[in-house]
Amino acid sequence: MKYTIEIATTDFNTTRSAVEGGADRVELCAALSEGGITPSYGLIITCREAFDIPLFPIIRPRAGDFLYNDDEFEQMKRDVFHCKEKGCEGVVLGMLMKDGSIDIERTAKLVQLAQPREVTFHRAFDRCRDPFEALEQLIEIGCRRILTSGQQPTASGGVDLIAALVRQAGDRIVIMPGSGVRKENIKMIAGRTGAKEFHSSVKGQRPSEMDFIHPSFNETMVTSIDPAEVKALRNALTS
């Protein structure tokens, strides 16, 4: 069976590690500790030029909720256009209304702006009030996949809802489990849900290579990805 492994990365080095580990696709983010926000233009361009892999930058102007004002929406439109212009295969985004429903009108505008690039609706979906209604709406406006943890903090805790979404979606849209997906549970999640695409950050830390660390600060670790952990995800699925 063909599975797709998407890895969330935060900088050039973690993207390189994801590629080396055999990732099928990269979700490029800044501030992954905040759930991910839009990466810099410089990072997008540098990764696009260096790596021959589907690259999906997240379009999220800030951390926090997914209710955006008009100025933030204009920023999102410009970021979508930039990613499309620079040859990214897709973007990752999500918008909600105050009542917890999908912001259909403005999400549809971003999907149209991104065409023919793909759009993944991110885990704003996990904050919506009716996931089954939202699923149909996102299919209607042309999103290609939904990243979800089944409206739970982690995908392993949301497998029942994810499975129901996979059944309802059929082949109309991809349901991609994410959040807490690791080599220890990915096969269980696949078996329980029927999902074929999976999202993971597999993030770790490595010691700083600085020779001097100021004693007043504790900046001794750097976010990293071990390519072996990316390979282990696929091995766990197919073993």
Give the CATH level 1 class: Alpha Beta
Largest sheet: 4 strands, parallel
The total of helices stands at 8
Number of strands: 10
Give the strand order, joined by hyphens, for the main sheet.
3-2-1-8
Mean pLDDT: 96
Q: Please state the overall shape, judged from the principal axes of the Cα atoms.
A: globular
How many whole angstroms does the radius of gyration measure? Answer: 18 Å
Distance between the termini: 12 Å
Domains (count): 1
Percentage of residues in strands: 15-25%
Helix proportion range: 25-40%
Q: What class, by secondary structure content?
A: alpha/beta
Protein described:
This protein is an alpha/beta fold. It has one domain (4-238): Alpha-Beta Barrel (TIM Barrel). It contains eight helices and ten strands. The protein has a four-stranded parallel β-sheet with strand order 3-2-1-8, with helices on one face. Strands 4-5-6-7 form a four-stranded parallel β-sheet, covered by helices on one side. A two-stranded antiparallel ribbon has the order 9-10. Strand 5 (118-121), helix 5 (131-141) and strand 6 form a beta-alpha-beta unit. The protein is globular and about 55 Å long. The model has no long low-confidence stretch (mean pLDDT 96).
Characterize this entry briefly.
The protein is of the alpha/beta class and 239 residues long.
List keywords for this structure.
single chain; 239 residues; alpha/beta; TIM Barrel; 4-stranded parallel β-sheet; 8 helices; 37% helix
